[in-house]
Specification:
Helix content: 25-40%
Distance between the termini: 22 Å
Number of strands: 11
Structural class: alpha/beta
CATH superfamily: Protein of unknown function UPF0759
Radius of gyration: 18 Å
CATH architecture: Alpha-Beta Barrel
Oligomer: single chain
Strand order of the largest sheet: 3-2-1-9-8-7
Number of helices: 10
Length: 293
C-alpha cells in the first residue's frame, strides 16, 4: 500500500493526536463488555505480496493464512464483486472464528461515485452475505477528490445500505476533517446510522488521524513505512486502545499494511503479541519468539 508514502519517514512526527472531544461521549454510551471483540490481520494473503510468510511447500495460502490470523481486510473485492461460489469457497476454507472485511467494489465507490448504484450494491451485498457468520464489517473507501459537495450522495448511500450488514467509511478529502462544519455534518450522519469512521495512520496523511469514533467500533487501517518507527507507532496505538477499552470500546478491527507488504505479517504479529500482553486478551496470531515466524 503506497497511499501516504514519504521518502524519509524519520522526518515525520508519528505521535498520535488527542482524541476528538466527542469520542469519549460515544464510548460512554456504549454497552459495557468485559472484553472487546478484536480482529487483527493483513490486507492480502497471496504469496507474491507476503514473501517469507508461508512455509516452503504451502499449497493453499488462504488455508495457512487463516490458521495464523483471525481476519483479513479483503481488498480483492475492491477490484470486482466476488461471485457467490468464490465467497463460499473462501468461507469454507477458514476456521470458525475467522472473519472477512470486504472493501466495496470500486465500480460503486470510484467509477460511479455512489450515483445510481442500487443494483450494484444489491449484488455486492447479496454475494458477500454468503460469508455468513464469517462476514465482518464491510467498508467503503472513497477517492481523495470525493468532497463535501457530494455529501448527499454519501448520505443516500448510507441510508440505502442494508441495516443487517455492518458498514465503515473511509474518507480522504481534507475538508471532511479540517472544516469543522463539514466534519460535524459527517459525524452526525455516521453516528445516526451507527457507521464506523475509519482511522488511517499513514506517514504522508497525518490529517486522517481524526481520532473521532462515531460508534463503539474502532476500525483502524495502519500503514507502516518499512522503518524502525513502525514498531513504536504500534505500541502507541496499544496505549490508546487500552484507554478506549476502559471507556467502553466494543470492537476493534485493526489491519496492518506496509509500503512493501511482505513485512505486514511481522508487524501484525508484533501488534497482536503486545496487545494481548497489555490488555489480557487472547487474539490469535503467528508465534513470536525473539524473531518472527
Amino acid at each position: 500500500m503506497i497511499f501516504g508514502h514519504v521518502d524519509n519517514p524519520s522526518l515525520i512526527s508519528f505521535e498520535l493526536p488527542p482524541d476528538h472531544n466527542d469520542t469519549a461521549r460515544v464510548l460512554t454510551h456504549a454497552e459495557q463488555k468485559k472484553q472487546p471483540e478484536v480482529y487483527v490481520g493483513c490486507a492480502k494473503w497471496n504469496r507474491t505480496e507476503l514473501k517469507g510468510f508461508y512455509p516452503r511447500g504451502t499449497k493453499d495460502e488462504l488455508l495457512y493464512y487463516s490458521s495464523q490470523f483471525n481476519s483479513i481486510e479483503l481488498n480483492a473485492s475492491f477490484y470486482g464483486t466476488p461471485s457467490i461460489p468464490q465467497v463460499t469457497a473462501w468461507r469454507d476454507k477458514t476456521p470458525d472464528d475467522f472473519k472477512f472485511f470486504p472493501k466495496i467494489t470500486r465500480i460503486i465507490s470510484h467509477f460511479k461515485r455512489l450515483k445510481d448504484v442500487h443494483y450494484l450494491l444489491d449484488e455486492f451485498c447479496l454475494n458477500i452475505s454468503h460469508f455468513e457468520s464469517k462476514l465482518g464489517m464491510v467498508f467503503l473507501q472513497l477517492n481523495d477528490n470525493f468532497a463535501h459537495k457530494d455529501f448527499n450522495r454519501l448520505k443516500d448511500f448510507i441510508h440505502m445500505f442494508p441495516t443487517g450488514i455492518q458498514l465503515a467509511v473511509e474518507l480522504r478529502h481534507p475538508a471532511w476533517f479540517n472544516d469543522e462544519a463539514v466534519a460535524a455534518e459527517l459525524y452526525a450522519l455516521l453516528e445516526e446510522r451507527k457507521v464506523a469512521n475509519i482511522i488511517v495512520d499513514t506517514a504522508g496523511r497525518r490529517d486522517l488521524l481524526h481520532m473521532r469514533l462515531t460508534s463503539p467500533t474502532a476500525f483502524v487501517r495502519y500503514v507502516g513505512a518499512n522503518h524502525p518507527t513502525d514498531y513504536t507507532r504500534l505500541e502507541d496505538w496499544i496505549d490508546r486502545i487500552e484507554n478506549w477499552v476502559e471507556n467502553g470500546l466494543e470492537n476493534l478491527y485493526f489491519f496492518v499494511h506496509q509500503n512493501t507488504e511482505e513485512e505486514s505479517p511481522q508487524l501484525a504479529a508484533h501488534f497482536i503479541q503486545k496487545l494481548n500482553e497489555k490488555l489480557g486478551l487472547s487474539v490469535r496470531g503467528p508465534h513470536v519468539n525473539g524473531t518472527l515466524f
